[in-house]
Amino acid sequence: MHFTLVFDGSESTDLSYGLKFVPCPVWFQGERELLNLHPENPHYQKGDLRRLLDQERIEAKLAAGQRHAVIVVHPAGHGSPADFMALQDDLRVEDFTFQTLSLAMRVDG
Length: 109
Fold this sequence. Notes:
By secondary structure, the protein is of the alpha+beta class. It is 20% helix and 32% strand. It has helices at residues 48-56, 81-93; strands at residues 2-7, 16-21, 25-29, 32-36, 68-74, 97-102.
């Protein structure tokens, strides 16, 4: 599996980031690689979200007073359920509320 993380930003700011495991975790925006987290380890680690928040200055771009995100779970990819749980834990540590959507459960065309 892999993930798309969408933060609640202003209308003029795209705060959507992909987390792909190729084979180690890498943050992307569109097709642009932003941050290769740790090439020596194929798993998401505690603090990997903070590295993205800092590098992309996401907190300054959030909608006023909002710390909300959506995690879109894509079924294809090398991420694991443990990686998914670690990402959720990082969001909680950073005081984000979040919702999760799974494309694996999609029933419409």
